[in-house]
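Morning - FE2/S2 (inorganic) cluster inputs below, output right after.
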Amino acid sequence: MSKMDLALNVNGLTYEIKVEGTATLADVIRNEIGLTGIKLMCNEGDCGACTVLMDGRPVLSCMMLAIDAEGTEIMTIEGLADADTGELHPIQASFVERSGMQCGVCTPGMILTAKALLDENPEPDEDDVRAALSGNLCRCGNYQRITECVLFTVQEMKAGE
Ligand code: FES
Ligand code: FES
């Protein structure tokens, strides 16, 4: 199959690569660009593990063609910490400090989905958090701690204002 030219903006950098027209965004970012923070659990749109932010909104990268992402700004978990200092985003720090992850496979998708929520609604309540994360499955069943991590982040961010 002949390949197509693709310019993909990921975490603020533009990658010019050749891809098959049928390649998913998840596979291209993981295998061609080498950012393996995207996890593939179901690979069919059911679990949210492959979530990335596209222009600030969560999308399932296993369900999207890479060529359809051209012209957008993609963020993966690797782009979330401060690029200059390496300081973790408050949601990441909260997951580390408060045991928000067990095996960690769902974690990048959970954190990016939570980031999109907090960008849109900086003061969500527990129902808002659970609703926002409802498309992200955790096979370890760590939902309570994940929810607590996001709510703790909300408190931390409020206290830091
Ligand atoms: S791996 Fe994409 S939704 Fe499960
Ligand atoms: S921590 Fe293992 S899938 Fe969520």
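Note: The beta strands are 3-10, 13-20, 51-54, 57-60, 73-75.

O.
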